[in-house]
Automatic annotation (TrEMBL), chain A:
Subunit structure: Heterodimer of SAE1 and UBA2/SAE2. The heterodimer corresponds to the two domains that are encoded on a single polypeptide chain in ubiquitin-activating enzyme E1. Interacts with UBE2I.
Membership in a protein family: Belongs to the ubiquitin-activating E1 family.
Metabolic or biological pathway: Protein modification; protein sumoylation
Protein name: SUMO-activating enzyme subunit 1
From TrEMBL, chain B:
Ubiquitin/SUMO-activating enzyme ubiquitin-like domain residues: 448-535
Keyword Nucleotide-binding carried by entry: yes
Catalytic residues, chain numbering: 175
Origin species: Sinanodonta woodiana (Chinese pond mussel)
GO cellular component: SUMO activating enzyme complex
Protein known as: SUMO-activating enzyme subunit
UniProt entry keywords in alphabetical sequence: ATP-binding, Metal-binding, Nucleotide-binding, Nucleus, Transferase, Ubl conjugation pathway, Zinc
Major location category of this protein: nucleus
GO BP terms: protein sumoylation
Membership in a protein family: Belongs to the ubiquitin-activating E1 family.
Length: 341, 634
């Protein structure tokens, strides 16, 4: 389908600086892709901005929740006076303004109520602000139908993104130094050296991704797990506690219940760790002091990485990060790790 | 806003943000993202400055701008859009150059933190100096395609922006451009020079005619060329007057111009036989007899810019763009001139067609207009996601700066792929200031190698002190005990000096010049090293740290003894004596100086790493990132 899409001169002017980076073919594929974005908090806003600017075909904003005071920390798509209104609907206008050439729609229903075949309308599903149970369900549906699946969230200073692209084929530029003998032959030695240049070859590659459940149910208590653990970012386990909190209370930790949520997180931590084969004090409960609301710069970083991974996935250009990216705003680390296989 | 909601930040950070005043320099790709992050994080008082207006090619990433804003001030529109995110923020926008004297030391002193979101080295150098002078912390940043970096600069604590020599812009030897191009870029540079010769400012460095001083013509071949030079002058009669005056006389006649540059000049080049002994000789073209073959395009593309043109098409575009440019020039009236701009269609058409015609003549592959635009315009590809990540990292570093935790600040690099330690974002320890830095050292000194008989005061001021050393309005006096004033920042005061050679002021080897830039609050001593001839016919060379060159000298001298490096015997002797006289080495090539930077290793984070307890120390080459640290200045 992507092959039939032509880029107009107007689009070429608008997308000039990125076509110079990823080429016309990648832009054509972007232009054909239909994306579902679940969750329109800070991270969702960043992802929406990045992929709409890049020039996808259509974006559906799906969120049944309403704007709160906390959105002022990072959700730049909703007007300040819209507290109490639906997040997807409130975001629609500004998302559309980012790029009139993209078809943008808002859906205010609850993703949990959507039947399986709803997801078949999309090439990419990106789920934020979802519980682990929901993420597992959507991942399985996407895997069964070859839909590219992404998940991500930001809690205060911490954030992550996950990708399950199934069996994914992509093109990668490989650079080789090559002396241009035929032209450089007659050049004096001093000039000849300068004629050596990097040559870019496009290489076709593929990668197979694992399901989200394999990562979250991975047993770190085994010998193999313990070996891997040494090099696994702590942020992964912080995220697990936070997702467990959402599972248990059917909501995120919130600043309006700051103290009790902090305590609940601290209490939840040992159990979450033990369940996946870790010592109950493997991570310090200190993180509970810095995981409230969504920091705008953290959303920008995680949303930037996540947005670029979506662009890579649909344009089938460049090696995707497999399969997690973690950002920890307290220690400043930004790591890619392969967990679950 | 994060800082006005209790529980998001710790109390110290929260209070620092609420009471801060910050400056953002640049409202482009990084600037838009940064402004968003700052207002959402709760920074209450932000000033933003940008000289630029909005272009349609900005809209794929500078998300505070929309189509209806094209042509308007970036700073102003960015302010208005960001106020929607947080109407309580106080944002002051300046549609102006940060290098203007309005933004003096007092201006910079108002801020707790300055953040650069710039795309050129000149402005970066200037803001670096202003922040050093005002003793304000600066966060520097840059992106290129998928890559980016953020760094913190704090006077006396970290390296400044200019502590390490900066890679020089890539240039090509004049004879390659004029006589023996072998790459598309050589033809593109030539075509840009041709544009300036025909429509722009006359610059002797941008001659497009065959170069009879090509070192390859030394000896016998040279004689032949010299003989034929007289012949050519007689035949064409063109060299005696400026190219522009001649073109104007012909009424910018496409046929006449084409036949001069693509037939007669090429025939003349062919007469320099020594050049073509081992090279494929060029084939002159005639306006009335052009090859009709169409270059093979890999596949049909809809975008005109991405299609290769035949020679005939190039000639047609050449003619059409000539007449449009002629009209533009006439509109300017007497003494008018055009400045080449990649976004001006006729100017771009002219360079594409002229470059491809020349490429055809020399058997060099042709390029699409799209590719020529990238190369001729030094376009750095830019995307929203990289800018977003870098702007996020700027704020993360900014929070540490506000808390004055400079020991925790890092230089952070965004890579395309994670490194072997899984790091996609790679933090590096900030370097200590370079004690020999000619900007941030307590008593800055710099060595300039030049020929005092050939360099005028004007060249010293414009190309060396302003261009090379980044001063804006210098006062220069000779450190001769008399305080002879060479250059004054007051207009007209030293005008009578401008055309004189340095030597006429008694400036010779070892003389010290005291330069003072009032705006930058910057004093610099220039030590002059006279040399009769510099390598590659450079006009001058700026050497930040002489000792590093001295260390390299012995090695070089050995090499030189063995191999005269293409110099004639006479030149080699001259050079050798010059070195002895000066007791210093000046034969280090600019590239070697760059090597010093490149091979200098940057220490990786030395703290125990988060990746659980293992404290593997890894070193990271600056060269990994040097290429994308700085946008190329066109
Ligand atoms: Zn310095």
């Amino acid at each position: 389908m992507a092959e039939q899409i032509t880029i107009t001169e107007d689009e070429a002017a608008l997308y000039d600086r990125q076509i110079r980076l990823w080429g016309l073919d990648a832009q054509r594929r972007l232009r054909a892709s239909r994306v579902l974005l679940i969750g329109l908090r800070g991270l969702g806003a960043e992802v929406a901005k990045n992929i709409v600017l890049a020039g996808i075909k259509s974006l559906t904003l799906l969120d049944h929740t309403v704007v709160t005071e906390e959105d002022a920390c990072s959700q730049f798509l909703v007007p300040r006076q819209d507290v109490g209104k639906n997040r997807a609907e409130s975001s629609l206008h500004r998302v559309q303004q980012l790029n009139p050439m993209v078809d943008v729609q808002a859906d205010i229903s609850n993703v949990g109520d959507k039947p399986d075949d709803y997801f078949l309308n999309f090439d990419v599903v990106c789920a934020t602000c979802c519980t682990l149970t929901l993420l597992h369900r959507i991942d399985e549906i996407c895997a069964a139908h070859k839909i590219k699946f992404f998940a991500g969230d930001v809690f205060g200073f911490y954030g992550y993104m996950f990708a399950d692209l199934g069996f994914h084929e992509y093109a990668e530029d490989v650079q080789k130094t090559k002396a241009k003998e035929n032209i450089g032959e007659g050049e004096p030695a001093t000039k000849k050296a300068k004629i050596e240049e990097l040559e870019t070859h496009v290489v076709k590659k593929s990668a197979t991704f694992t399901r989200l459940s394999n990562a979250f149910e991975f047993d770190w208590g085994t010998t193999e797990g313990a070996k891997k653990l040494k090099r696994t970012p702590n942020t992964f386990f912080i995220i697990q506690v936070l997702l467990q909190f959402m599972e248990k209370f059917s909501r995120r930790p919130e600043v309006k219940t700051l103290l009790e949520d902090r305590q609940a997180l601290e209490e939840l931590t040992p159990g979450v760790l033990e369940k996946i084969g870790l010592k109950s004090d493997y991570i310090s409960p200190e993180f509970a002091r810095s995981c409230f609301a969504e920091l705008s710069p953290v959303c920008a970083i995680v949303g930037g990485v996540l947005g670029q991974e979506i662009i890579k996935a649909v344009s089938q250009k460049d090696r995707p990060h497999r399969n997690f990216f973690f950002f920890n705003g307290i220690d400043g680390s930004g790591l890619v790790d392969q967990i679950g296989d | 806003m994060a800082a006005s909601i209790f529980g998001v930040f710790d109390e110290v950070t929260q209070n620092k943000i609420i009471s801060s005043k910050v400056l953002v320099v640049g409202a482009g790709g990084i600037g838009c993202e940064l402004l968003k992050n700052l207002v959402l994080s709760g920074f209450p008082d932000i000033e933003i400055i940008d000289l630029d207006t909005i272009d349609v090619s900005n809209l794929n990433r500078q998300f505070l701008f929309r189509k209806e804003h094209v042509g308007k001030s970036k700073a102003q529109v960015a302010k208005e859009s960001a106020l929607h995110f947080n109407p309580d923020a106080k944002i002051t926008a300046y549609h102006d150059s940060i290098m203007s004297s309005d933004y003096d030391l007092e201006f910079f002193k108002k801020f707790d933190l300055v953040m650069n979101a710039l795309d050129n080295r000149v402005a970066r150098n200037h803001v670096n100096r202003m922040c050093l002078a005002a003793d304000k912390p600066l966060i520097e940043s840059g992106t290129a395609g998928y890559l980016g970096q953020v760094s913190v600069i704090k006077k006396t604590v970290t390296e400044c922006y200019e502590c390490q020599p900066q890679a020089a812009q890539k240039t090509f030897p004049g004879c390659t451009i004029r006589n023996t191009p072998s790459e598309p870029i050589h033809c593109i540079v030539w075509a840009k020079h041709l544009f300036n010769q025909l429509f722009g400012e006359d610059d002797p460095d941008q001659d497009v005619s065959p170069d009879t001083a090509d070192p390859e013509l030394a000896g016998e071949a040279g004689k032949a060329a010299l003989e034929s030079e007289a012949k050519a002058d007689a035949a064409g009669g063109i060299k005696r007057k400026s190219t522009q005056a001649w073109a104007m006389e012909t009424g910018y006649n496409a046929e006449k111009l084409f036949n001069k540059f693509f037939r007669d000049d090429i025939k003349y080049l062919l007469s320099m036989e020594a050049l073509w002994k081992k090279r494929k000789p060029p084939v002159p073209l005639d306006w009335n007899n052009l090859p009709q073959d169409v270059p093979a395009t890999t596949h049909q593309v809809a975008i005109c810019d991405q299609r290769l043109w035949s020679v005939q098409e190039c000639a047609d575009v050449f003619a059409k763009s000539l007449s449009s440019l002629k009209e533009e020039l006439i509109k300017q009236g007497e003494g008018g001139m055009l400045v080449w701009d990649k976004d001006d269609d006729p100017a771009m058409d002219f360079v594409t067609s002229a470059a491809n015609i020349r490429a055809h003549i020399f058997g060099i592959p042709s390029k699409t207009r799209f590719d020529v635009k990238s190369m001729a315009g030094n376009i750095i590809p830019a995307i929203a996601t990289t800018n977003a990540i870098i702007a996020g990292l700027i704020v993360m570093e900014g929070l540490k700066v506000l808390r004055e935790e400079f020991d925790k600040c890092k230089a952070v690099f965004l890579n395309r792929q994670p490194n072997s330690r899984k790091k996609l974002l790679v933090p590096c320890q900030l370097e200590k200031p370079n004690p020999k830095c000619y900007v941030c050292a307590p008593k800055p000194e710099v060595t300039v190698i030049l020929n005092t008989h050939k360099i005028t005061v004007k060249v010293l001021e414009e190309k060396i002190i302003k261009g090379g050393l980044g001063m804006v309005a210098p006062d220069v006096e000779i450190d001769d005990g008399k305080g002879t004033i060479l250059i004054s920042s007051e207009e007209g005061e030293t005008e009578e000096n401008t055309e004189k050679f340095l030597e006429q002021f008694g400036i010779n080897n070892g003389v010290r010049l005291k330069c003072d830039d009032f705006l930058q609050n910057y004093n610099l001593t220039i030590i002059i090293y006279h040399r009769d001839k510099l390598e590659e016919d450079k006009e001058f060379q700026i050497i930040g740290d002489v000792s590093e060159i001295q260390a390299k000298y012995l090695e070089d001298k050995e090499n030189e003894d063995k191999q005269p490096n293409g110099l004639t015997e006479k030149q080699a002797t001259e050079a050798a004596t010059a070195v002895e006289d000066e007791d210093e080495v000046m034969l280090v090539e600019e590239e070697e100086i760059q090597q010093i930077t490149v091979s200098k290793k940057r220490k990786h984070d030395e703290e125990p790493e988060v990746v659980n307890g293992d404290t593997v120390k890894k070193q990271r080459l600056i060269s990994d990132v040097a290429e994308h640290y700085d946008d190329i200045i066109s």
